[in-house]
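Example record for the data management plan.
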Amino acid sequence: MSKARLEAFSDGVFAIILTLLVLELRVPEVANHSSFGQYAAAMAPLIPKVVSFILTFVMICIHWVSHQYFFSHIGRVTIGLVWLNNLLLLWLCFLPFPTAMLGDHPTDPFPILLYGVNSLLAALTFYALRRYASHAKLFKEENSKALGPRHSIPAIAIYALSILFAFVNVYLSLACFLVVPLLYFVPTIIQDHARF
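Corresponding structural encoding:
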C-alpha cells in the first residue's frame, strides 16, 4: 500500500468520526413562540452532551494533527505500520460511544472509566505506532527523536490516572481529560510565540 492511500483512508475515517460525534446532539422539543427562558430550560440538559462533544472533538483533532505530522515524516510504509494504524483508527472510531454515555451520565463512574480506557488504548496504540516506525527505520530523517514514542507517554500517564480516579473521585477523572489538550496546546502556543 502506498503512503498516500493510507493517509487518504485515515483522513476519511477521521472525518467520519467527527461527523458521528455531532449526531448525539439532538434539538430539544420546544413549542413555537416559546420564551428565551423556555428555550434555556430545554437546552440545559444538553450541556453535558455539548461539553463531552467539544472535548472529544478537540481530542480527535489533536490525534489527526499528530497523525498528519507523524506520517509526513514517514518515508516508507510496511504492513505492520498499516495494521497498527488500523488499530489506532479502531479505538478512535469507538470513541463516540463513551462520549455519548458521558454526555448522558457525566458523573457516573462507568462512562468515565470507559472513556478513559478507550482514550488510553488510543494513546498506547499511537505509542506503539511511533515505536514501530522508529525501530523499523521508517522515518525519512536520520534524527527522528522528535517523532519517537516518548511523546505519547504524558497522555498515557494521564489517561491511566483518569481510570484510577474513576473509582475514587469522578471529578478528578474528568479533570484528567481536560489536562491532555493543555499538554498539546500550551507547548504549541509557546513555540509559535518563540518564532516571532
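Summary line stored alongside the record: The chain has one domain: 3-23+53-194.
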